[in-house]
Design brief:
heterodimer; A: 470 residues; alpha/beta; five-stranded parallel beta sheet; 31% helix; 17% strand; globular; B: 195 residues; four-stranded antiparallel beta sheet; four-stranded parallel beta sheet; 8 helices
Chain lengths: 470, 195
Amino acid sequence: MSRTLAQKVWDAHVVRRAEGEPDLLYIDLHLLHEVTSPQAFDGLRLAGRPVRRPDLTIATEDHNTPTDNLLTIADPVSRTQIETLRKNCADFGVKLHPLGDPQQGVVHVMGPQQGLTQPGMTIVCGDSHTSTHGAFGALAFGIGTSEVEHVLATQTLPQGLPKQMAVTVTGELPPGVSAKDLILALITQEGTGGGRGYVVEYRGPAIEKLSMEGRMTVSNMSIEWGAKAGLIAPDETTFAWLKGRTFAPQGQAWDDAVAYWKTLPTDEGAVFDKEVFLDASALTPFVTWGTNPGQGASLDGVVPDPESFPSESERAAARRAVEYMDLTPGTALRDVAVDVVFVGSCTNGRLEDLRTAAEVLRGRKVADGVRMLVVPGSAAVREQAEQEGLHEVFTAAGAEWRFAGCSMCLGMNPDTLKPGQRSASTSNRNFEGRQGKGGRTHLVSPAVAAATAVTGHLSAPADLDAVGAR
Amino acid sequence: MEKFTVHTGTAVPLRRSNVDTDQIIPAVYLKRVTRTGFEDGLFSAWREDPSFVLNNPAYAGASVLVAGPEFGTGSSREHAVWALHDYGFRVVVSPRYGDIFRGNSLKQGLLTVELPQAAVETLWDLVEADPATAVEVDLVAREVRAGGHTWAFALDDFSRWRLLEGLDDIGLTLRHADAIAEFESRRPAFGVLVG
């Protein structure tokens, strides 16, 4: 019978199937960070249970860590949470990449860069952006702390079979339009609940042409339209990216793995429960104007009139969003001025993202009154970027070159917006107060972020020819 | 987990959609390493507004939260469930939930009931007209009853059974420890060993 990529991965991991019960799925890789794990380890202690497979479990520190130094966590509550992770990992025999370690970084950057994330695997983490790893053809999804404890104790999870959706992206992305613009446009098209109950497979020529970094950006934001997971079929791009990485198979094992991975793509004739289409060639740089990732528009557009939405629920949400964002309907999005620009996060904190931002900033200056933070997704990304001299481009432009971490994505560490400040951010959520209480977030691509830093208002690199160039 | 069979309480009308888990509990409250005491973080930004519905004394002591669609989207933080529970909520009613939040809630005995938008609006009208309206949530019959209305809701048999019995998932899974060990013995060679 013809099966989808997700079905194949699922079927290969069913430990137990029984009528009227969810399948019990085996988990190949469990990623941990400091925020969603302490209560899970406590649960193990209370029940006297060990970690079943510490060899399939790996931890890093990212959400609470400062990005201005590697030594001091000033906030005592943050410090306690980090120290708790260190103690838990030591007590239960789990490998940890702590602050200062060469592999430390945002959990969804740390895993792939070491080759831990591979096609056909099941991967979970107490973090909704675990969907990132779907870019490799892995079935990867975020879980809560009770489930973290469950996986630590059993290396399995009971899971009901989700429905299957295909998102086919036809055509070719125009120059200057990136994976981030693609996924933001898709979320606006489908709404924040559009993917709910589905495992999604992104496919089609525009997806196949994306780099691994671009694919990770797309898969990363699957959760922002409610999807359980977002997979992309492994292909030569995937294999080339993985080959030679620390945990990638070697020699004969590599050949065997590639042969297996080549069996994973969706079979001809496999049936999806739902199909969605998007034409990449019609896309433009895309930004959000509201307070959920589905409230977006082309950068060429305007802040919409809340009354223009079809349902009362959407109209009410838009009214509230426009008020929170302090925007006037009809305002050109290019006229929206920002205070802060953030380049980083598990969505856009990889080397390719930093290269893109640096290319725009080269020979230009961050506008007066604008603060720009460039935060590599991991210590390894930071090191690679420095080898390429990207940090010099950023600092010459007047941007801050920081250490790796979640930083301004989520307001848990010292990098936050002040009340009323407005950001252009390459992160994944524009929720009220997400980047700091009272802060206002516009989600953008790395190219738009960099161009916006130069002009001080939402802009694309193509807008810069007339201004800022020297 | 506490058993859940039938719960009767008063309800709070939260006339908002897309209530993401960052609103339910902002990230600054997630730095704690404990599992209880999160009630202060619940809707903490919104509660600073005196007109926010939770600040209305008429709804003090309510244990059912009635919200718009896409409740609990976003971050996987189980702290959102803990905060609702610690504040005193036993049931949430919404037309649609974020998946991870829904899964977390059902593991913690916070019953998340899905009712159509029209039913949610009727509930809003009822409890706004009379905040003392009793809302009865019956997991045995899979029904919500209030103000003379009865709405049936769907919940899969397995989740319902676990809630009715107050069963712990890990305990249930470990009954199949042999099956897990057997799977591990024939587990494909792909995959990595971290340690």
